Automatic annotation (TrEMBL):
<feature type="region of interest" description="Disordered">
    <location>
        <begin position="1"/>
        <end position="46"/>
    </location>
</feature>
<keyword id="KW-0472">Membrane</keyword>
<dbReference type="InterPro" id="IPR052365">
    <property type="entry name" value="THEM4/THEM5_acyl-CoA_thioest"/>
</dbReference>
<keyword id="KW-0443">Lipid metabolism</keyword>
<keyword id="KW-0378">Hydrolase</keyword>
<feature type="domain" description="Thioesterase">
    <location>
        <begin position="94"/>
        <end position="159"/>
    </location>
</feature>
<keyword id="KW-0053">Apoptosis</keyword>
<keyword id="KW-1003">Cell membrane</keyword>
<dbReference type="GO" id="GO:0005737">
    <property type="term" value="C:cytoplasm"/>
</dbReference>
<keyword id="KW-0966">Cell projection</keyword>
<dbReference type="GO" id="GO:0016020">
    <property type="term" value="C:membrane"/>
</dbReference>
<dbReference type="InterPro" id="IPR029069">
    <property type="entry name" value="HotDog_dom_sf"/>
</dbReference>
<comment type="similarity">
    <text>Belongs to the THEM4/THEM5 thioesterase family.</text>
</comment>
<dbReference type="GO" id="GO:0016787">
    <property type="term" value="F:hydrolase activity"/>
</dbReference>
<keyword id="KW-0809">Transit peptide</keyword>
<protein>
    <recommendedName>
        <fullName>Acyl-coenzyme A thioesterase THEM4</fullName>
        <ecNumber>3.1.2.2</ecNumber>
    </recommendedName>
</protein>
<dbReference type="Pfam" id="PF03061">
    <property type="entry name" value="4HBT"/>
</dbReference>
Amino acid sequence: MNGPSASPPAPQGSEEPAARAVALPPTTPPAGAVLPPRAPEAPAPGTLLGSHYDHCFGCGPQHPQGLQLTAVAGEGLDVTAEFTVRPSHQGGPGLAHGGVLVTAMDETLGTLNWLLHAAAVTGRLETDFVRPVPVDAVLHIRAWVTGVHGRKIYSAAEGRIGGPDGPVAIRAQALFVQVKLEHFTTHGRPEDIKKAMDDPDLFKRARAFEVNP
Ligand SMILES: CCCCCCCC/C=C\CCCCCCCC(=O)SCCNC(=O)CCNC(=O)[C@H](O)C(C)(C)COP(=O)(O)OP(=O)(O)OC[C@H]1O[C@@H](n2cnc3c(N)ncnc32)[C@H](O)[C@@H]1OP(=O)(O)O
């Protein structure tokens, strides 16, 4: 049986040689991408990175059902985080749901924003599930920037179990896209935006992220 494909197959023999060239995955930095230095405003290595929004499902301390993930800034453009798989995160019996693991990877990759001092949202996230992750396991996540090209931020992450040097259970590659504050104020549900704007701490944090893509 044929798997899903992005476009119908071209008739045989109709392809030009250039069209047959294997394209780079969209999460791989293109030629011309750079690896910038840590932003001057980046938190010092070892700093516990705060939540970008208290009610975030990934990192919000005020989200009782959320993952409440906390990440720590690395020496370069990298972060580490630990995620403990709870019974409420099950997919198969006693095993983590893949989508929950992806959320933990997405959130950790998102904290790289702090080191670049840029607000960016996930455009594309590719994941490989390498081995099953049991309930009660701690997923030791490391994420790092692989390149920046215009507004596009390329990054990768891996999650290991049994310790920070244990076997890899999940790998991810991502493309984040830098956005302005209006991305949130234009698209978010108005009552939540209003509450967020009324919180001077959050507003200050958000303005500090203001970029000029
Ligand atoms: C007062 C309130 C304040 C509250 C806020 C506090 C501060 C927050 C700070 C930090 C937040 C961090 C949050 C982390 C949370 C974890 C991460 C998430 O889960 S984020 C949620 C999931 N993601 C989305 O909802 C994106 C939905 N998509 C979009 O909004 C757009 O599609 C967006 C912004 C991604 C791009 O849209 P365009 O119109 O701005 O730009 P275009 O021109 O389309 O793309 C720019 C470049 O990126 C490529 N691109 C875009 N999407 C791509 C894709 N899927 N695959 C490959 N390339 C893609 C394009 O080809 C283009 O490339 P070329 O410059 O031409 O080379």
